[in-house]
Amino acid sequence: MSEEVTSSRAKKNESWEWIKALVIAILLALLIRTFLFAPFIVQGASMETTLHNNEKLVVNKAIYLIQDPKPGEIIVFHADETRDYIKRVIAVAGDRVEVKDDQLLVNGKIVEEPYLERKEERAKEQGELHFTHDFPPVEVPEGHLFVMGDNRLNSEDSRVIGPIATSTVVGRAEFTFWPIGQIRMTR
User: Fold this and answer.
1) pLDDT digit string (tens) for 32-51?
2) 28 by DSSP, 3-state: which?
3) HSE-CB for 27 with a 13 A CA cutoff
4) What residues does 139 pair with on adjacent strands?
5) Catalytic (active site) residue 46
């Protein structure tokens, strides 16, 4: 066999290997994006000061296949057919939620919310009397979650839209990756 034929076959084999590697990489990326992790862009100020408008974060889509959402976790869910929201889980099915005098109560017990300390301080500095408006007790139905934004005075959450169905949950926010200088875990 001539050197030319051997060289031509080697180039074809190398090209074929590159094509296979590219197809496999694309398929893996699609599988990871579809079933495991997805990027999400925070829109609005409802999660201030924990998350900021236009921050980009990674959502773990697989976690709730092996466990249920827990109070305190930040989740992304389908608010409707065209919009996803990001909020914090406050209570799960069977829990009773209310706010009295700026105190979050779940099943009659005060819930400590250390992630709100900076927001509460800012509200008081600005002369706001209440950080969270009172609302009467709400029982979370089976198959639902009660969610709230960390920016309690500027959040369309379960106080407005009602408890959300767990079937609408996309996943748990894990960490921000943009802007680069503010990479951090979201919990």
Assistant:
1) 666 567 889 899 989 988 89
2) helix
3) 6
4) 96
5) yes
Tokens of 54: 């236009």
Which of 61, 87, 119, 158 is catalytic? The answer is 87
- Distance, CA of 55 to CA of 98 (rounded, Å): 30
The DSSP output letter for 141 is: P
> Residue 74 in contact with residue 50, Cβ under 8 Å?
yes
Q: How far is CA 158 from CA 120, 138, 145, in A?
A: 20, 10, 8
User: Which residue bears the tokens 């934004």?
Assistant: 149
Catalytic annotation, pick one of 8, 11, 20, 46: 46
Q: How far is CA 116 from CA 43, 86, 148, 176, in A?
A: 19, 16, 12, 18
| pTM assigned to the model | 0.80
Checking DSSP bridges between strand 144-148 and strand 164-165, what pairing results, if any?
Answer: antiparallel
Is 87 designated active site? Answer: yes
One-letter amino acid identity for 158?
A: S
Q: Which CATH architecture group holds 42-185?
A: Ribbon (2.10)
pLDDT in tens, 46-80: 998 889 899 999 999 989 989 999 999 999 999 88
